[in-house]
């Protein structure tokens, strides 16, 4: 075929053709047949064939875009601009498919360069770092490449959707191989869009009923697989999952997911109709078919949960990209989750899809900074997931049929603030009788004691133990009632510091202490609760010694333990007096620190502060220092076991002596009278 001759023929047709009275298609048939026959010859230049087809397209445009139908002609059934464009796309695609499917075409960067401009031209603005800048520039600026990409896109749009999905899958694998997860997510979302688009296309809707049903199930399975992968990747790395996904992409994906959710909801309506007796369930035999039917119903329920969960992640990202349009973005997100949770929960769907909706809700409700209160929703989610119950004031009236899972440590740490908020609203005695008590015990069991040894906590533990066992220095007692007593500890910056700061250990200690005190005792009782209370109080003090109430309650624990030891038996008085002395000494030290800190740090309200200090004066040394001191002959005030070695200036020799003077009987009486006067002043 002579190129010059073809161009001359084409020009002649355009120049001398009668555009107003064009009766035959002989010229078009001749041009078309000439081009097609040349294309079938060996060694035909593809670029030249494309140029000829483009010339033919111009001729059709010049003559008003006629459409010529050739009867009984399978080779050329129709001559039109559309047919020319389709042929151009077909020829252009041959080279493309050779690059993609040819042998040795596994280089991910090469695949991305060839496939992405065809499937999603707008996405090349977010090319991966592995693509060189000059490669992307060439891809964007060369007109021939752009035209070829458009032709290939046109061909794919006219072709089978399975091919398009396959190409998206190849592109996704290429991005996976270069570890670019945000583009992997984008490819999966685009594939879902294609599937949903196919379900509303005439090619699907015009199928016979049986074939349409089979096709629907096949596409739903494919969409479910894609949603499963996308949700997993988004939840694993929510911050960077949408880095290259703009608002236009989000809107198209949200629209597709909404259509899919609407389709799946028809199954929900069917199940509702069966549940209320409006529709009779089908009778399926044999048993294997009935089992397969039930299995697929479970699959559809899981798909529904995944679709609403995936839609939430897209909506949340859309809100983040358009913050100026939302006054309360966190509340809008939670309201979406609340509505979906209620709709799925009453149908007992929350347990499906591996509880992915509950996982997302748990994370969002416990971390989002919302303006409104959603405590009932938090309680319902935690009840669904872990079977935990909180305050009776929170509305948890529905059982969503979720199997209970074991509470893990990270979630338990997230729940501490919420649990403390509920506990602070309750009287301690009511707390012991409530479901919240068992919930908090479960949370503490999941948190446990950190297996890691922190030097700061270890050092503080030694300092507090030494302080509680130390002899009672009268000067320290005098300074305590002036608010100047203190214990020097090391600052702690650990994970458990937040628990101590929120009063978690104090609450656990107070619960154990109150449980012991409220028991009706008619004889000797085990003091395990007191030991547990002391452990929690001292655990909080190891993180900071500035809370006067913790010292006060610790003193009460030692006081109660001492009272329990001497009330029912004289054995410890006769044989273990040293243990009793240690307990009383610990109680006095605890009360002294409580007095000192209360004077300095109690509630700034004058009335409350005065009442607290009066209470401490009344309970502290008048009881321990005077009455018990007289009964025990004051061994807790003695320091015979705490002598120290000194160096004499005169003899230049070492000697053993007292570190400070005793607190004599008169001093004890005088100090007690001072405390009584302060407690009534």
TrEMBL record:
A cellular component term, taken from the record's GO annotations: nucleus
GO BP: any one term: chromatin organization
Function noted in UniProt: Has a role in a nucleosome assembly pathway that is required for the integrity of heterochromatin and proper chromosome segregation.
Keyword set, alphabetical order: Nucleus
Protein name: Histone transcription regulator 3 homolog
Cellular localisation: Nucleus
Similarity comment: family membership: Belongs to the HIR3 family.
Gene Ontology terms, MF aspect: nucleosome binding
